């Protein structure tokens, strides 16, 4: 699916710049997570957990759930001690 075709779908999940709900369907959630990692996290930068939380909190209050989904999806890499996060290449 092209980026242009995907963008309207992701936009429907937001209201006034805030995520209205985390999708339950895996494919839809994956779309959202890809959008979040592309728009909120810089490639090649190392983040602390509070920095990741702050970035995710700009769109949704449940930053812990979003962070966990990003890690499980392989879009966000976490150091073994959980102190550092990086966007997957």
From TrEMBL:
Domain annotation DUF2087: ranges: 18-87
Any Pfam family hit: DUF2087
InterPro entries named among the record's database cross-references: DUF2087
Protein name in the entry: DUF2087 domain-containing protein
């Amino acid at each position: 699916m092209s980026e242009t075709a995907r963008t309207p779908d992701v936009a429907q999940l937001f209201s006034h710049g805030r995520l209205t709900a985390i999708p339950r369907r895996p494919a839809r959630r994956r779309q959202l997570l890809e959008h979040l990692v592309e728009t909120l996290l810089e490639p090649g930068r190392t983040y602390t957990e509070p920095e990741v939380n702050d970035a995710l909190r700009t769109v949704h209050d449940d930053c812990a759930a979003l962070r966990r989904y990003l890690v499980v999806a392989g879009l966000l890499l976490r150091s073994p001690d959980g102190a550092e996060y990086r966007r997957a290449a």
